[in-house]
């Protein structure tokens, strides 16, 4: 299963944002990575560089590699509506992202691991594919055996009330994907229009 396994702090320092992890190291050292990072001035980026940067940021944020991200974009372009908004909706509807948003896992990589290790069910059936696309009304839950596993349940927390497109009951470890989110309700700092422009070249 392809995923990024490199240094997380380095990626966060490249973008100057805590896109992987809690960003505690950014307060200590927000310079670009590398031996001469503190001395190197950030150059004014051109149009293509800005577009590529946004694509890379989205890929690292949601834990996708290039081929999978391109397939997701192509699906977003096929759907009716604004392509950039469709892209964000599809990324948010991934099973691993939803498990993270609901509060079942503390991070997207942890959510991906829960899913791939068969701890999560969708509508009562075990699903071990992190990229599984949820639809409105799908019920996501921990497997019954996993609910009694303190290692699995120790990280469960209440859902952030900002995520109104999800419902989650921390007592029963069960939630519902109510609908696709509107773009302004997704907190990620991603300029999806730049990604659309990049792939439209």
From TrEMBL:
Gene Ontology biological-process annotations: ribosomal small subunit biogenesis; translation
Domain of life: Bacteria
Keyword presence, RNA-binding: yes
Keyword list, A-Z: Ribonucleoprotein, Ribosomal protein, RNA-binding, rRNA-binding
GO molecular function annotation: rRNA binding; structural constituent of ribosome
SMART domains: Ribosomal_S4, S4
Keyword Signal: no
Every Small ribosomal subunit protein uS4 N-terminal domain range: 3-92
Ranges for domain RNA-binding S4: 93-161
PROSITE patterns, alphabetized: RIBOSOMAL_S4 (PS00632), S4 (PS50889)
GO cellular component, one term: small ribosomal subunit
CDD domains named among the record's database cross-references: S4
Family: Belongs to the universal ribosomal protein uS4 family.
Subunit structure: Part of the 30S ribosomal subunit. Contacts protein S5. The interaction surface between S4 and S5 is involved in control of translational fidelity.
Function: One of the primary rRNA binding proteins, it binds directly to 16S rRNA where it nucleates assembly of the body of the 30S subunit.
PANTHER family: 30S 40S RIBOSOMAL PROTEIN, SMALL RIBOSOMAL SUBUNIT PROTEIN US4M
Name used for this protein in its record: Small ribosomal subunit protein uS4
Natural source organism: Flaviaesturariibacter flavus
